[in-house]
Amino acid sequence: MRKPSLKKTILVMHGDKGGVGKTTGATLAADWLRRQFGSVVVVEGDETIFDVAPRFDGVPGVTTLAVDLARPDMSEDAIVALLGEIERAGGDSHIVINTPASASKTLDAQADLIAPTLADMGYDLLVGWMVDVGEDSAVLSASSKLCALATHKIAIRNERLKPSDRLPWETHPARDAWRASGGIEGILPGLTERVAAKIRGINNVPFSDLINDQRLTIVERQAVKRWVNNAWANAIEPLYRVALADDQEVINE
Questions:
Q1: Given 108, 132, 238, 250, which is the most exposed site by the fewest CB atoms within 10 A?
Q2: Could you write out the DSSP letters of every residue in 189-213?
Q3: Which strands form 152-158's sheet, in the order they lie side by side?
Q4: Separation between Cα atoms, residue 175 and residue 239, nearest integer Å
């Protein structure tokens, strides 16, 4: 039986750009939290395109909300709406926010409202920064106010885009700054496109449940299992093991 979490967290999957893996990271994190604690709230940051919610539609223990965060012209209004929805959610222990492209114009612009409000609600603010293939991703990480105010943060190198050791991040001064400010690092492994394309067509099934889905061949299920386990171990668990240090006894090894 799962034990309750001693801490409350809100993970913001950030990275500003589209196509860097924020949705995949948010989905994996929500799935991991569901498995560990039995419940999680997923917030879609784009009301017109639901990326994470279809994966969990009808799945017990997962609540989904939608708040438009792509509003740079009215960033304060967007954040007030977001934080209001979180407060009305009833104090759920763990929340994951999937952000749209260019979300920094909303999130970072209002970081000094987000951080203290979440603290007053009893949440630790976690940020997952998805590292892109360009140098500007490293530059943006250093200028992100939300990253600066996060309780804990992880820079995740997405190997679907390029091998991690070939990313500009590896030798950029922003990486040193990230580490110096307490940020940790992780790697999101790639999944062969043949299998990835197939699972994109299967909704209502979390990634970790696909390992038993008979719509996949045996080798496809094994590929998904290996990918999920490696992704959790290298991109999700490192952040939560730091954030939930007091919860170690309730986190499965």
A1: 250
A2: ----HHHHHHHHT--S--GGGGGG-
A3: 62-66, 40-44, 94-98, 8-14, 123-131, 152-158, 184-188
A4: 17
**CA pair distance 223, 192, nearest whole angstrom:** 8
DSSP state of 233: I
Q: How many angstroms separate the CA atoms of 75 and 106, rounded? A: 5
Q: What is the dihedral of CA 128, 132, 135, 138, to 10 degrees?
A: 0
Which of 9-23, 52-66, 169-183, 208-222 is predicted least confidently? 9-23
Give per-residue pLDDT as tens, 44-65: 988 777 788 889 999 999 999 9
Residue pair 37/93 in contact by the 8 Å Cβ criterion? yes
Q: How far apart are the C-alpha atoms of 83 and 63, rounded to whole Å? A: 16
Placement of tokens 């943060």 in the chain: 153
β-bridge pairing 8-14 and 94-98: parallel
- For residue 56, the one-letter residue type is F
Length of the chain: 253
| Cα separation, 1 vs 103, whole angstroms | 37
- Tell me what the mean pLDDT of segment 16-39 comes to: 89
Provide the 8-state DSSP code for 12: E
Give yes or no for a contact between 211 and 231, defined as CB atoms under 8 angstroms apart. no
What does the alpha-carbon distance between residue 206 and residue 36 come to, in Å, rounded to a whole number? 14
pTM: 0.92
Copy the structure tokens of residue 71: 């509003």
